[in-house]
User: What shape does this take?
Amino acid sequence: MLPTDADLDSTQMINRNRKVSSPDPPLGHRVRRSAWKLCLGLVLSSVAWAQAPARPFRPVDPLLQDTGAAGLKQMLLRLQTTARLMQTTAHPDDEDGGMLTLESRGKGASVLLLTLNRGEGGQNKVGSNLFDVLGVLRTLELTASDRYYGVEQRFTRVADFGFSKSPEETFEKWKGHDIALSDMVRVIRTFRPDVLVSRFSGTSRDGHGHHEAAGILTREAFRAAADANRFPEQIKEGLLPWQAKKLYVGNVCGFMASTCPAENYTLRLNSGATDPVLGMSYIQFAMEGLRHQLSQGAGGWSVEPGDRFTYYKLVESVLPPTADKDGHEKDFFDGIDTSLAGLAPRLGEEEKKVQGLRTELKDIAEQIKTASADAEKDISETAKPLFDVLQKLDSLILRTEKSNLNASTKEELLTVLREKEEQAEAAVNLAMNVSLEATVAGPRGPAAGLPREQDALTVVSPGQNFTIIVKLHNGSKQPLWIENASLHGPQDWIRTAYKGDGTTIQPGEDFYANFALRVPPKVSYTRPAVHRNDPERDPVYTVDDAKYATLPFPPPLFRAQVNYSITGRRDLNLAIQPPKPMRLKGTAGSGGRIISPVLVPFLDEKGVEPKRPLAVAPMFSVTLEPGAQVIPVANGSATMVRVGVSCNFTGAPPGTLRLEVPSGWRAEPDKLLVELHRRGERQDFDFKVFPGSLKQGKAEIRAVLTAAGASFDEGYSMITRPDLDSFYYYQPAVQRVSIVDVKVRKNLKVGYIMGAGDDIPTVLKQIGMGVTIIPAEKISSENVKLYDTIVLGIRAYDTQKEVAANNKKLLDYVSAGGTLLVQYNTGVSDFNSGHFTPYPAQLSRARVSVEEAPVEILAPDDGVFHSPNQITDRDFEGWVQERGLYFMDQWDSNFRALLACHDPGEQPQKGGLLEAGYGKGTYIYTGYAFFRQLPAGVPGAIRLYVNLLSGKEGGQ
Assistant: This one.
C-alpha cells in the first residue's frame, strides 16, 4: 500500500520497497545537473538566465525508440559526437523533418529548430479556434513532432499575421528586422551551433513573405550573433558572441524538389535511407511526427519507402573550403572535427590551461566506444564504462569551471561537456533500466488510487495542499543504494521533504519518497511567457517572462531527482533544504542521477492513464460567453450576457460577481452571489445589459469576481488533445462588443451547414437572424425548402463528404428558388474535378493577403450592394488579416463578378465573389474571409454578408 496523507502528518520521510512483476519503462533523456546547480539556477534564474538558459522538459511518455536497447544505442551515438546544428523556419510544418531526423537520430548531432512564429494566423483544419488559441495548439503539435525529429524547439516573438506575398510587407508588420533578429541571435548565442541551416533561400522562390523573411534574417543572424555590438543588452546579461562556422540555405531547387541541378547545391542528403534502430527511413519516422500537426491537415500524410533527397547550398563559411571538384560536400560538418577528442584542438593555445584535457577526452571517447560495443551484446554491460564516463566528465567539468580559460573558450567547452554529461546520465539510466516517476497524488491521498480526470489535481491554486510521490524503479540486476531524493522548484511550497539517510533496494523493487506541499498565497500562474492584447491585429508578442520568451512554454514547475549508486553508501551530505554543493566521492564510476518532471496521472473516460504537467491557476476562472458580441444599432432592448465561473479549490470562499459596462449602460442585477465551494464546480450567471444610445463603434463588458479580498477577472482553458501534451490559454473576462449599423430582413430563414468550423452562425444570431445549423449527415433527409438561404461553412467540401454527396440536392434547391452561398475550400483539385458549381468554374489558390487592399465594386447596380444595407467603399475598412483566399480564376459567362481587389503590384482579382442565376434561384461563391471578419465585428463585412444572404424572402 502507498503511504497516505495521514502518514505525512506524523513523519518527515516515507520510504517503501515493493516488489513488482514487471519494471516500468525507463524515462527518456532528462536534463542533468548536480543538485546544487539545479537549485542555484532556480534561485538565480531571474537575474542570470542568459548564462544558464531555461530548457524545456518533455513531460510525456517517451517514444518506444527512446527506451530500452534502442534508446541506449541512440544515446551512445549522441555521446560520440559534438556536432551542433540549428535550423530556422517561419511556421510550424515548414521544417525539413527528414533532414532533422537524419542529423539527430542518424548521426547523433545536437539539433535545435527555431521557428519564427507559432502559426497563429493560419487556418484551423480541425476546429474553429483561430489566432492565439490556434497558436497554442500548433505549438503543442510542433513539440509533439519534435520528439520524433529528436530536436529542441525555440520561437521568436513575431506572430503569423496570415499569408504574405513579400518580405517587405512581412518586415513592415514585424516592425522591422530587429525584433525577430534579436531573438534569433539570442538563441544562437545560447545554443552555440557549429552549423546554421536556413530552410528557405531568402528569395522570391520561397513562395511566402514569412518564408523569404526567415531566409533573409538567418543570413543576418549568422554574422550578428558573433558581433558584440549587435544587441549588446544580451552581452550585459551574460551571453557571449558566437560565430557559427557554416551557413547553408535550402529551397535551392524549389520546395520539396525531387531533383536538383548539381550547380544549385553543395550538399545532397538522403533522408530516405533506412535506420535499423528506427525500423524505417528517417523521412518516414519524421512523417510519423508531422502527422501530429492535424490543424495543418497533416493527419493523412505519408511517405513511401525509398530514396528521398534534400538539398542545401553553402553560402557563408569561416572555414577553408571543403567541397570537392564539383563543388559538393558530403556532410554539413565537413571541415569541422566533431569528435570528442577534437574539442581540445579547438581551444588553440588555451588548451594548456586545462591540464590533461586532450588525454582525458580520448579516454572518455574510448569508454564510449567500449560501451557501444557492449550494447550490441547486453545493454546492462554498458553500465560500467558509462559510469566511468560520467565520473570523468564530472571531474573535467569541475576543472574547466575552475580554470582560467578566457570566457568565450570556457563557455564553448562547457556547453559541450555539460551536454555530454546529460547524455551520459541518460545512457546510464537506460543501461541500468532505472526509471523515475514523480506524480501528484489525487485529492483523496495516495492510497485512494488514480482519480478521474475531473477530480485530478492537474491544476492547483493558492492554499491547495497536495502530495508529490517520487518513485524510482530498480529494473537492473544489482542492488541500488539510494543516496537521496530531492524536489527542485519553489522551495517555499515544500512543507515536508524526504530527509532519509539512504536505503538499499533490490532488483525489481521500488523506492518511494513523498513530499507534502502547499501553494503559497502569492504565486505565478502557469501561462505562456508571451501574450498579445489584440490577437487579431498585434503582429508582435509582448514578453511577460523573459526567461522563457523563446521556449515553447515555461517548463514544468517541479522536478524530482534521485541519486543512486551500486557500490554502497558514499560520503555525501544528505540535507535537502537547501541542497549544498556536492561532488560524489567513492569508488569510480558507480553512481548515477535521474530526473523527472512532476506529472499528474488520472484515468480518462476509456480507463487509460494519461499524465499532464502540474499547473498553477487562480482559484476562480471567469469567462464571458461568447467572448465577442455584435449588437445592431437599432437594437433598443436588453442583451443577455452570460458569465461562466469555474472553481478550482475545495473550500473556496463565497464571492460577488458584477459587470463593468460602458458609461451610460447598465447591468441588472448589480451583482450576484457566487458560492462554489468544490474544485471542478461550475455555474453560469446571467445578466441583462441595457445599452445606452447606440452608435457604430466598439465597447467592452468586463466581469469581475471578488472573493476574500481578491479580484478575479480572467479565464483560462486547457488546450490539449489525446495525442498531445497540454497547456493553458488565458484571456481577460471581457466581451468585446461591436455595435454595427446593420439591417436584417424579417423572417429570413437561413440553414447553415458547418464545414471545418467557424463562428459565423453565432454572429448572425446575435444580430437577430434566424439561423438553423444543419448537420452534414442530415443533408440528405433535410427539407431544404424550409430555408430561404443555405450557407456552406468554410471548407465544407474538404471536410464533409456528405456535402459533396448531396451536391445535386443543393443545386436543385437553388434551381427551385433558393440562395446557396458557398465559402472557400482549399482542396483545389478535388473541388474542380467534382464539378460542384452549376456552371463551369475553376477554383485556384489566388488570394489577396493585404487586408487594406482597395476593393472595387464591379456591379454597383446589383441588389446585393443595396438591400437591405447600402454598401459603399467604407464597408471595406477595418478588415483583419486578409481580404480573401482561394478565389476562382476562371468562370463561365453565367457568373457575374461582383468585386475586385489585389495585392500591391498585382493584377485585379475578380474571382473572390461570383454570383449566378440558376433556375429560379441564386448561386454565390465567395473566397472573401468573412470567417475572420464577422467574429471580429467588422461592420462592413457583416453588412455585406447579410446582403448576400438576403436575396430571397418568404421561403420557396
In short: The radius of gyration is 31 Å. Residues 128 and 757 are 4 Å apart (CA to CA). The mean pLDDT is 90. Residues 339-427 form one domain.
